[in-house]
Design a protein that fits this description.
about 15% strand, 4-stranded antiparallel β-sheet, metal-binding, globular, Alkaline Phosphatase, subunit A, about 25% helix, 14 helices, Alkaline_phosphatase_core_sf
């Protein structure tokens, strides 16, 4: 064990393409731009199961959904009995701390960390107040985190309602800096800083809204296939669940979302500044990732779960120590990468043995996969995907629908080539790859080596009177909730 520290920053629901250094001119990310210039950005990074809970299970165990057991978000599912990223660092003698969102059950499960400062987006009904709830109470704002009135899963917006220092992004940064300053100086550290935004609620600081108020925001991606009324069942269900915003309202929602992103970007500067002032920056490996993306109105869709780039594609930036050579400065790595690769990569860089349970590969070495498989949901809402980095095939079992996109020439997925005779061989090859990855109930949707799917049910009207998980006044404490209740398209909001 040498003196190298490891800082892994995770954001929630941030698409991989939404970084200035990745070519987006309508968002301001100066800190991430600097990280890209000092390290390597992975342009083909994906969330293997683009839903908060399952994605984080994969991140913290170095596994895919088949191994860790959740592809639909089972909020009452405990972590699998396998080594965790934090646990491996801790066993090797590192001090390990997490600040922010873990999204595990029970919420106070430390999953191998020495200590956790928790901010869990108002889930006090599952396991009591978290540390951010307690902070607000100490500041005279007990239970007032969500008094702005915005939902945790919708795209209405308004400015943050409390003083700036009480925003969860500021709290997470402040606690991270304090943790770094309070470290044990005799041992290296693994720090995991996990921001809850830009995941809704869209309640950014007014100062950041003002930055975007007069700026042009790129319009959502549109396509012929998404304009078709006959969408695959799973996508039609997603579209019906969220409000179809007018162009004006969608532009405003995107500005509010971008404001949350830039706020995080600026707060990361304080963590880097603390490392510099503590003389730790030169011997700290830094990673920046998201658990999944957000469709943000592209193709008329919102949030996650979809296998389209806005949802399944994630930012991934890795920086070695300045005297290291494993991630070149200013490089763009086009290898297929996933969240399952983070654990073996960081352990490899630390010289810690990678557990046999890990499914991922170390990105610090030359390993290069031929394809990557992703999946989300079960039953009629199931979506499956395989990509070879050049093309992507998406399968919707309900109705047995397939989409095929040429990512090299059509990165926004505007042209579905599944019925194109010239792409028939590519489709067949990717279908074989996908079939080889199927398990569980999916095997009943294959016959004689061919995808046959299942009938698409009639789509029932959705009762969303719970406003997609709307929080209320959370003091006195929220009554205990059923941890098995899921908020998803097609389910009642609980």
């Amino acid at each position: 064990m040498d003196d190298t520290n490891f800082l892994l920053i995770c954001v929630d629901q941030w698409p991989g393409h939404l970084i200035e250094a990745a070519g987006r001119s309508d968002i301001e990310t100066p800190t991430l731009n600097r990280l890209c210039a000092s390290g390597t950005r992975f342009s083909r990074a994906y969330s293997e199961t683009p839903i908060c809970g399952p994605a984080r299970r994969g991140l913290m165990t170095g596994t895919n959904a088949r191994a860790h057991g959740d592809r639909r978000f089972r909020p009452d599912l405990r972590m699998p009995d396998m080594p965790t990223l934090a646990g491996c660092f801790r066993a090797a003698g590192y001090q390990t701390n997490a600040i922010g969102k873990l999204h595990v059950f029970p919420p106070r499960d430390r999953i191998g960390f020495d200590d956790v400062k928790l901010a869990e987006e108002g889930r006090s009904g599952l396991d009591g107040f978290d540390d951010y709830d307690e902070y607000l109470g100490e500041q005279g704002h007990a239970g007032e985190q969500f008094m702005h009135g915005m939902s945790n899963n919708e795209y209405s917006w308004r400015p943050w309602h409390l003083d700036e220092r009480h925003h969860v992004t500021n709290w997470t940064t402040r606690e991270a800096c304090k943790t770094i300053k309070r470290r044990d100086p005799t041992r290296p550290a693994f720090w995991h800083v996990s921001y809850t935004h830009p995941h809704p609620p869209l309640a950014p600081l007014a100062e950041y809204l003002d930055r975007y108020r007069m700026r042009d925001v790129l319009p959502p991606v549109e396509s012929d296939w998404s304009a078709d009324a006959d969408l695959p069942y799973a996508l039609a269900n997603m579209r019906a669940y969220w409000d179809r915003l007018t162009p004006e309202r969608l532009t405003e929602a995107r500005r509010a979302y971008y404001a949350l992103c830039t706020h995080i970007d600026h707060q990361i500067r304080l963590i880097l500044g603390t490392l510099r002032e503590e003389n730790l920056l030169e011997n700290t490996v830094i990673g920046f990732i998201a658990d999944h993306g957000d469709m943000l109105g592209d193709h008329g869709l919102y949030a996650k779960r979809a296998m389209l780039e806005g949802s399944v594609g994630i930012p991934m930036i890795l920086l070695d120590r300045p005297d290291g050579d494993r991630f070149a400065a200013g490089a763009v790595d086009t290898r297929l990468a996933g969240l399952q690769d983070i654990m073996p990569t960081l352990l490899d860089m630390a010289g810690i043995e990678i557990p046999e349970s890990c499914c991922g590969e170390s990105l610090a070495g030359p390993a290069q996969r031929d394809y990557l498989y992703c999946e989300a949901m079960e039953g009629a809402g199931a979506m499956r995907m395989v990509t070879d980095a050049t093309h992507k095939l998406i399968w919707y079992p309900a109705g047995n629908r397939v989409q095929l996109f040429d990512l090299a020439n059509d990165p926004n997925e505007t042209r579905d080539l599944s019925a194109d005779p010239a792409s028939a061989e590519i489709r067949a090859a990717l279908e074989r790859r996908l079939i080889g990855e199927l398990y569980g109930e999916d095997l009943s949707w294959v016959s004689n080596g061919q995808l046959v799917g299942c009938p698409a049910p009639e789509r029932a009207a959705m009762d969303n009177r719970g406003l997609t998980g709307q929080r209320g006044l959370q003091f006195p404490p929220v009554k205990p909730l059923d941890p098995s209740v899921v908020i998803e398209p097609g389910a009642k909001a609980g």
